[in-house]
Amino acid sequence: MRQFILSxxxxxxxxxxxxxxxxxxxxxxAVKPSWLKVCRRTDPHxxxxxxxxxxxxxxxxxxxxxxxxxxxxxxxxxxxxxxSKGHGAIVLAGSLFDMVVHGPSNSTPTYTELDLKNKKxxxxxxxxxxxxxxxxxxxxxxxxLPIVGHGNCDLNLSNIKTKVETNITMRxxxxxxxIFVDQMKVNFSVGNMKIKLYNLFNGNKVLGETLNNFIxxxxxxxxxxxxxxxxxxxxxxxxxxxxxxxxxLPTDLWLLTDEEFEKYNAKQELTTAKAISAS
Length: 279
Prior knowledge:
This protein has a single domain (about 1-20, about 45-250), classed as Bactericidal permeability-increasing protein, domain 1, CATH 3.15.10.30. It is about 35% helix and about 40% strand. It is built from six helices and eight strands; from the N terminus they run αβαββββββαααβα. Helix 1 (about 1-20) runs parallel beside helix 4 (about 220-245). InterPro entries: Haemolymph_juvenile_hormone-bd (IPR010562), To_sf (IPR038606).
């Protein structure tokens, strides 16, 4: 059931990503942003360096990076998304609307496996919690129980763990190299979940509580029914997000060759020496 609820959220975010998380054009930064960590390709600890890079970058993504045309994602404000599943043990029709999603900024990159030779970039991202408030209008059935209602909806998820596997290519853009994610596979798990649909069955509290409890307790059957498309939708979201960032950050700013790294260090040492001299 946790995956059932998350699948609704993912479906919503997938629709939203078509607008907000598509790759939006922006010029390359004139200089390396202060929040962008530098890594050396031949560093034996490259994976840890890239993980640290993502950890340091995420707070800036949460508030948005206007110079890169990257909008904030904390909180997410979503207008309306239609929901439709017309066969099987779960049949639903309706929509979620006026959604506010808190928690995406509480995400933590946990590991990175960057293999430039084989063009693979795998990573893990944990979300501490997602708190969603919305309006809903739903009709259908979940397993043996009917569902009908419209009103407020509260969703609370915690301990969400994702594993992302990607195929990448090194592309040239405006004469500079970038990393581009071509394909992606996402797997996830959810530790805890709670949902509350208000005003089910025209405000019948007994039937409403029965259905809410049923939804919160029955996971396996609904997971089996809906899990097939969830990872694909999440992949679309993550691809848009990663490409919207790294298509605007040439590798000569953050993933340096030995020659580039030596030049970068020399420049940093010169800057430090000038600062000391000026003081």
